[in-house]
Write a structure and sequence with these properties.
260 residues
């Protein structure tokens, strides 16, 4: 793959509104399709916002009517906001694009970045993104809600954790010993060029995820580098590490068209 260019759109006090970043993605996508620019990865933070991919169901949205931005990427509903590193790799790939291979490359770069911080992460079969596998934890998750471990858990497959209070919130998955998602991935391919990308939780307030069913997954939760490592890990600290591993993985890749 060609050399990858990184563009920093804004972080912290300069976080970029979602609609503004989406419009910039469209502009860069058109320029990449026309070969006016090289492969480009937009790096940024967003102010707090819920975004819903095309497969999001009404039952997964906030119960309190909090506004949600419906977008043209794959996947379901998620949250973006302060403390989360967002990357939008806009890459030209051979057509027909092998979407799964592209997602696996993004996962690999993030897994390597997490390993550099001393955190072992993995993939979960059938679920995109980067995960920490479940095991009971002796200490409460940093910044999460406190969990009553004695509370019984419903066996109903249709149980909605949002209806039962903080004991079942996604931000408490680490205390419950459940798998927890550290990085979400949702993409779109148009004219052989990728859009959207990944969101890696560095030091966010994970209780934002408690209003939704993150990524439509009811039997797992969310976490962050700060939660897992027991210290504050900022977006600024993570940014150069993620960029290094994205460059290593994506520039070394030799994408092939999807077999038809």
């Amino acid at each position: 793959m060609s050399e990858l260019r990184f563009v920093h759109l804004g972080f912290g006090a300069d976080a970029v509104e979602y609609q503004e970043a989406w419009q910039e993605q469209r502009r860069v996508h058109a320029a990449r399709f026309a070969d006016e620019i090289p492969d480009t990865c937009l790096m940024l933070e967003h102010p707090a916002v819920y975004t819903a991919g095309r497969r999001t169901e009404d039952s997964e949205r906030p119960l309190d009517g909090t506004p949600v931005v419906d977008v043209d990427r794959g996947g379901k509903i998620t949250w973006h906001g302060p403390g989360q590193l967002v990357g939008y790799p806009i890459l030209k790939l051979p057509r027909p694009v092998d979407v799964i291979a592209h997602v696996r490359r993004l996962e690999e770069a993030l897994i390597r970045a997490c390993a550099e911080f001393g955190l072992a992460t993995t993939r979960v079969e059938g679920r995109s993104g980067v995960w920490v596998l479940g095991e009971a934890r002796e200490r409460p998750a940093t910044g999460g809600l406190q969990l009553d471990l004695a509370a019984p858990r419903p066996a109903d497959d249709e149980f909605d954790p949002r209806l039962n209070g903080p004991e079942y919130a996604p931000s408490n998955a680490g205390q419950r010993g459940e798998d927890r998602k550290l990085a979400a991935i949702g993409i779109r391919i148009a004219k052989g060029v990728t859009m959207h990308g990944f969101a890696l939780n560095c030091d966010p307030d994970n209780t934002w995820f408690d209003r939704i069913v993150p990524c439509g997954i009811r039997d797992a939760g969310v976490t962050s580098l700060s939660n897992e490592l027991g210290r504050r890990v900022t977006v600024g600290e993570v940014l150069p590490v993620v960029e290094k591993h994205l460059r290593e993985v994506l520039e070394a890749a030799e994408p092939l068209p999807r077999a038809v």
